[in-house]
Amino acid sequence: TLKGGVFFCYNKDNYDSLKRISFILPHILLVINNSILHKKIVDMSITDELTALYNRRKILEILRMEIDRAKRYGYDLALIIADIDFFKKINDTYGHNMGDIVLRKVSMILRNSIRKVDYVGRFGGEEFVIISPETSLQNAMLLAERIRKIFNSFIIEGLNAPVTLSFGISIYTPDKDLDTLINEADTALYEAKRSGRNQVKIYKG
Q: Are residue 104 and residue 20 in the same domain, yes or no?
């Protein structure tokens, strides 16, 4: 209308079509709502609630898949485990709310620092895992070192010093299974922490 209103002209065909739509529409909406609910349930089952990164179960599933792919096609595969230095001290000094803020900020930086083909997840507590397919030892070291340097200059409001991370790296070879790869990266991480933290170490056997 001239005043901006809307009106409908009905005839029998339009009326029958509207009746059919009014009958079908609730069923369509139900399917859409169920699909959205299903996606939310799936997302909750594979992501960490606090950081929105992959959770431990999902990251282990991905690692198994990438090990199989590396074995089948002869690809390189790097596993990087990162741990926030002195995280317990942050919690004890500034409280668990600040600890949660740190975890979310660290997660954001890790997510934004990897390639599209890489995966990052929260392994538990203040520990994170990066799975880097088709990545050599040298490139894995460059990636970890680049991320480490980002944190050296990143200040979280309310903390008196930068949050630093220690990194341990292991590289897949055909004789290694999932547990071996994780244990090697974890051993390298322990060496990084034992040597003073805020370092990148590789597993040397």
A: no
* 126 flagged as catalytic: yes
Q: What is the per-residue DSSP string for the chain?
A: -TTS-------HHHHHHHHHHHHHHHHHHHHHHHHHHHHHHHHHHHB-TTT-SB-HHHHHHHHHHHHHHHHHHT--EEEEEEEETTHHHHHHHH-HHHHHHHHHHHHHHHHHHS-TT-EEEEEETTEEEEEEET--HHHHHHHHHHHHHHHHT---TT-SS---EEEEEEE--TT--HHHHHHHHHHHHHHHHHTTSS-EEE---
Pick the catalytic residue from 49, 66, 126, 191: 126
Give residue-wise pLDDT tens across range 27-66: 665 665 555 443 444 445 799 999 999 999 999 999 999 9
Choice between 205 and 60, residue whose per-residue pLDDT is larger: 60
Q: How many domains does the chain have?
A: 2
pTM, entire model: 0.80
- The residue range of the domain holding 32 is 10-46
Q: Tell whether 16 and 107 lie within a shared domain.
A: no
Assess whether 127 and 182 both reside in one domain. Answer: yes
- Flag whether 5 is in a domain: no
